[in-house]
Amino acid sequence: MNAAHEVLALRARPRPASAPSAVLTLAWRALLKIKHVPFQLFDVTVTPIMFTLLFTFIFGGALAGTPRRYVQYLLPGVLVQTVLFITVYTGVGLNTDIHKGLYDRFRSLPMWQPAPLLGALAGDVFRYSVASALILIVGFILGFRPQGGATGVLLAVALVLTFSFALSWLWIIVGMLVRTPESVMTTSFVFLMPLTFASDIFVDLTTMPGWLQAVVGRNPVTYLASASRSLMHGQPAGRDVLWTLLASAVIVLAASPIAMRLYRKER
Amino acid sequence: MTNAIETTGLVKHFGATRALDGVDLRIRLGSVYGLLGPNGAGKTTAIRILATLLEPTAGRATVLGHDVVREAAAVRSKVSLTGQFASVDEDLSGQENLVLVGRLLGLSWRDAKRRASELLEAFGLAEAAGRQVQTYSGGERRRIDIAASLVAIPEILFLDEPTTGLDPRSRSQVWDLVRRIAAEGTTVLLTTQYLDEADRLADRMAVIDHGRVIAEGTSRELKASVGSNALHLRLVDAGRRAEAQRLVTRVLGNGVLPAGEPAEVAARLENAAQAAAVLSALSERGIEVAQFSVGDPSLDEVFLALTGRPTETTHTEAKR
User: Fold this and answer.
1) Could you give the number of structural domains in chain A?
2) Strand pairing category for B156-160 and B187-192
3) Of the candidates A17, A108, A266, which has its C-beta nearest B106's C-beta?
4) Chain A residue whose CA is closest to B93
5) Which of the two ends of chain A, N or C, has the fewest CB atoms closer than 10 A to its terminal CB?
6) The pLDDT of residue B320 is above 60
7) For the segment B148-159, what is each residue's pLDDT rounded down to a tens digit?
8) B66-67, strands of its sheet edge to edge
9) pTM of the full predicted structure?
10) What ipTM describes this predicted complex?
């Protein structure tokens, strides 16, 4: 009882964590969750392997003569598509936490308010990196040989992660607006499906009818896929990289204030 | 400043629903205060406004002198909330949850870990420390929720239905914790549907119904407002209750108190001698009495007398 006396005694509270420290702590939480629920990594391991194998072997012969030749074109794009698909789980995870009441605790703590969202995103970027690494490994096994070398590959992955981070803000908004994790999933894929398939991930832009080229050519995912292909194969990518970064910046600048307002708003 | 919490005309609308309809509260520093009422009465809304999670539609609330809307950050630095639902991460272990909160509150890793062990020890959770919270029993769950609110001891602790769904042993453990926390100087505001809980823990309480405070005071005052003496009878045959109630009304010359259980009859007495008159009238009519007592009215009866409806607890007991 004497010990308990000390434990519960009212005393001065410490000064709340700084913004970066709060974000890092919440990123630590995201990694702990992966440690405790390794199944969480299922979607970032199985999906990438499955997508890479499926698309390479199903489309490879028809589109490029052999799967091995096709994988040179496809791999940077399938990396983009797979990682973008995984970004949806950001919204799903957030929705679950909110509905369980955990965010009530976070919101009532004296800390920098965006920290829980940024911390969750930091954990997600780790998951995106795991997925990227796996896709590259499967690609190498299938004969993918990037001409841009390690630097090109790393730059491409960094660009994909940047755009994924930006896109995740949209799913954060969805995650706060809809009621169940399942509807976060459905709603997000309604946007994500056309966004990834109406791009040059699978086939070259020039093979499409003119009107479609006009649409697909302006899809930010096309810029991202073209940029990562060019980077990995050591070709000039400046314009596509710039457009991708610009699109990422626009998404973050537009979506994060909305996300923060929703976060602070009552539920 | 003697009041920890003051609200004036607090109103909260959710669309067409008036969750709070003008609530005035004065809660003294260092006290345990109970918000008592059935489901949907507005208790949780009130506590969420005070913990800065909701903004009131109208009216004003201050916590330790800080306005909950304009000075939300100042309020958050002095209070802790244990919500009705999960307020810890179920995927993480109990120890990790407490370290997480400690870090967010600004403790170093070392201090956060030391504080976590202290709390786990004090809350009887040392054995469960390494397990994921989702494997915890209801009582352990509640204790880790409360522990997470005490990583830094708050000046005010909000507990939203701290014992709902707990078995009797876990309930009394939580009660014991609340008493220990209050004894150290933290002001506690708790909501409850259980009248005996408010009776045991709270220095003062407000009875809330449909977003309004319908009674306020100490448990003794609330009981006195219904009548100082009450007669409780339990009949052998519940089927004869209506008959017994008519008889009691005739003997006492005033209305019976609404009673929760089917075989129960309760009535206000002016003096103890009236009890004898009631009993003999009943036995003359051949209505057998299994049990009787004269004493303070229970808080269930207070609630019934104030609202004309039984509380949630009496509902469920009546069904059993």
Assistant:
1) 1
2) parallel
3) A17
4) A36
5) N
6) no
7) 999 999 999 999
8) B17-28, B3-14, B58-63, B66-67
9) 0.83
10) 0.86
